[in-house]
Each structure stands twice: as C-alpha cells, then as structure tokens.
Protein 1
Amino acid sequence: MQRDGCIYILTNKNKTTLYVGVTADLYARIQEHKNGISKTSFTYKYNLHYLVYYEFHSKIEEAIAREKEIKKWRREKKDNLISAFNPMWDDLSDSEDI
C-alpha cells in the first residue's frame, strides 16, 4: 500500500496529555516535534515527544478525515485506541516502520 498520509498521537512522559496530528512524512514530523522546531507549539509547551500511536493511509485526505474523527473522541476512547495498538504506551519513534 502506498503511504501518502499518516495520523499520529503524541504524549508526554506522564501520559497526561495527548496530541493528534497528521503528516505526509511521519519520521520527519516526529523529529520536528522532538527537536522543538516551533517553541510556541502545543507539543513543545506540554513536552509531547512520545509517539504512542500511528496509522498510515493511502491518501492524505483520508488521513486528514481520520485525524478530525479522532480529535472529536473523548479521552477514554483515544486511550483504548492507543492501548490496543501499543499496550505499554512505548515510544514508537525509533520503530523501523515509520
């Protein structure tokens, strides 16, 4: 499957805050978050550097639609999505899959 879009979820060390984002290049985007490219961003302010969930889509439009859907969810539903994919909530940013 061609991977033109990806949604991802970041959290902080204590897993207290979540950020749902979309990108065409997951690895590059995660590096931007980890390096604090934008010092005024939500992810920088709350130290959201741990990639705990991602899913690839064949079209960026599909990824954007999925991001919007997940952003509307309550925290519990997001937690369940993450736990089903990554039960230990490990940082997946070093995964060879991204």
Protein 2
Amino acid sequence: MTQCCSSSSDDPTVRRDRAGLWLAATVAAVVAWFVIYAQLQPFSQWAVARLPVEPDSHLAEALAFFIYDTPKVLMLLTLVVFAMGVVRSFFSAERTRALLAGRREGIGNVAAASLGIVTPFCSCSAVPLFIGFVSAGVPLGVTFSFLIAAPMVNEVALGLLFALLGWKVAVAYLGFGLAIAIVAGWVIGRFHLEGWLEEWVRNVRAGAIDLPQETITMVDRLKAGIEAVRDIVAKVGKWIVLGIAAGALIHGYAPADLLASIMGRGAWWSVPAAVLLGIPMYSNAAGIVPVVEALLGKGAALGTVLAFMMSVIALSAPEMIILRKVLTARLIAVFVGVVGAGILAVGYLFNFLFA
C-alpha cells in the first residue's frame, strides 16, 4: 500500500496536475491583488466621506491618508516578498554570492537608482521592495540606491517640476537626485555594514534554498514565496502600520506657515534648517511639488526648497520607523547622515547656480 501511494504521488501526470492547480491559484490571487489595489483610493475616499468629520479638515486628510496607505503598503510588501521568495528559490547561496559580488556594486547602484525613476513610490511604499531586495541577498548599498531614488526621482516629480518650474530645474533635479542615490548607495556599500542589519534579516539572507535545482518543483518555489510572506510580513507588519499612522498625522497637520517663514530667509543655515524640518514630514512627490511651488512664490530660495523636498520624500520619519524593524539604529543613522549630506550639498549648489 505504501509503495502504491508513493508511486501515485510521484506520477508525472499527478505532479503536472498539482502544479497546474497551484499556478492557476497563484494567477487568480495576483489578478485579485491588482483589482483590489486599484480600488484602494476610491475606497478610502468613500470611507472618509461616511465618517463624522469635516470633508476638508486636517483630520479628514489624515484619515484618508491612513486608510489608503495602510493596505497599499501592506499589499505591496506581500506581493514583493512573495515574488522575491520565488526568485530566491532559483539561486543557491553560492550562486547568489557569485552573481552579486562586490565588483558588481557600482553597476548595481546605477541600475537600482535608474529602476527607482520608473517606480513612482513614496518612501514608505519603496520600503517593501527594499526589504525584498535585502532579504534576497542583493548588496546593501545597491538596495539603498533604490530606496533613495524611488521616492525622490520619478516621472511624477520630474513632470511636475518641468510643468511648474521649467526644464532646467527638472533636468538639474534629475541629475543631482540620481547622483545622491548612486553615490550614497555606493558609499554605504563600501562601509560593509551588513552586520548592522537586524538579526532576523541576516538569517533570511543566509537562508537561500540550497537543494539541487532539479529537485525543486514549481510548487516548491510557490511555497517558498508563501513562506517568505508569512515570515517577513509578520515581523514588519505592525511597524508599517505605526509608520503610516505617524505619516498620516504629519500629512494632515504639517505647519506650512512655519516652513514658509524659515525657508523665505537667505541665511546660510536655511538649507540645513529646511532639511531638519523636512525629515519629520511625510509626503510623496506629487503631494510635495505644489508645496514647493507655493514656497517659491513666497520668496524662498530654490536650493533651500528643493533640499526640503528631497528630505521629505527620501528621509521621512515614517520611513525610518518602518526601516527600524529591518535596520539597526546605527545603520539608519549612517543612511540619514550620508543622504542628508548629499541633500545639503545639492541645496547649496542649487542656491549658487540659480541665485
């Protein structure tokens, strides 16, 4: 009887049927994911409209932000982690190290930053991809290049800057934004700070599937993706919700008048002050560019305002809260320091070039 059951489970037809069912279920789940994802924004607007709050109040803005961003970021995290779990099943630890050796980091930083241009994510939405890349063993500096470029330099930001401020500003922002992402990621990579990742992330990186590739079926690969979701999403889910909650409060209650008064001054300290003010804020590129236009209309210096914009969308406090589950405080401090230094340089340079 045992032999009969064993031979039945090993039958090629049975294996094909089982694989077909798993693949069909996966495709159906992905289609459902996209359908639900497309409805998140209208749902958030519908939900807030039925709450007992004033439609144009700060509270309504904060609630709409939280109701929209929480499922959005969690869904992105789930999809990316599942995909990276499947991808990881194709690579043994040795093969991964060979493909992603340090000599490839320079090219990898450029590729990751360039990928960021065509992924119009805010900083918190880029974190799921960052987590997926890190857990898959992609070099740390390369993942940081993506994390910086994805929110800061994308077609939304560039299109709005072009429409509102002209092509020179848009092109300059593109060049300097990419330079920050590439150089900052490369510098962080040179520090070799993988040991400053949280222990559970290091364990995931070390846990690549090392079975002979011919023994791994498609069902095994899909199961690897599901297991990655169970492991990683469970660890970072509450941190994502906390980060988005902080972002919602900031988004709804940011003191715009104070920002305009500080950045309207021409003192040398206006650029670092703008960066320090921007870090606790949270917005995406589409949301912050109109603020940039308004601040410039009040006489603020271009470099100061763009430094503020970069810090808001590349170094936001909610992003740091989410990343804290993945990175140690020391590594977050290095990330903020390196990127912050680049943003300061861009701010002063813009002020000099466009004085």
